[in-house]
Amino acid sequence: MRHAPNERTVPMLREAEEAELQARMAADPDAREMTEEELGRMRPAREVLPPAPFDALTKQRGRPRSPSKLVQVTLRLDPEALEAIRASGPGWQTRINETVKRAAKGLGSNR
Fold it and tell me: Is residue 5 assigned to a domain?
């Protein structure tokens, strides 16, 4: 989960650094502050961009969340067994999960 920047995650500028930054912005003709009129004319990106560029800019990045909730556990495995399953390539954790689910179903019928 991403958090909004705060004093702990973003280093704050010292007063001298802030003053220097403000002076540079004031001296830069391309970095002027927007007027109230200009701010009032602004519209959300969804209203002004075509759907494809808007979707590309707002697309969630990274691995999509799985609809099923998995529980993180810690367990001890035989080193050779773990090495063998990891050597089988990407998706080894999913394969372990599927194997445990099949075994759990088998246990239910033995009781």
Answer: no
Least confident of 43-52, 56-65, 73-82: 56-65
Q: Domain tally for the chain?
A: 2
Q: What totals of helices (H) and strands (E) does the chain contain, helices first?
A: 6, 0
- Position 74 in a domain: no
CB 55 within 8 Å of CB 45: no
96: closest CA among 80, 79, 107, 81? 81
CB within 8 Å of 31: residues ≥ 6 apart: 25
The whole domain housing 105 covers 79-110
pTM confidence score: 0.40
Of 77, 106, 107, nearest in space to 92 by CA: 77
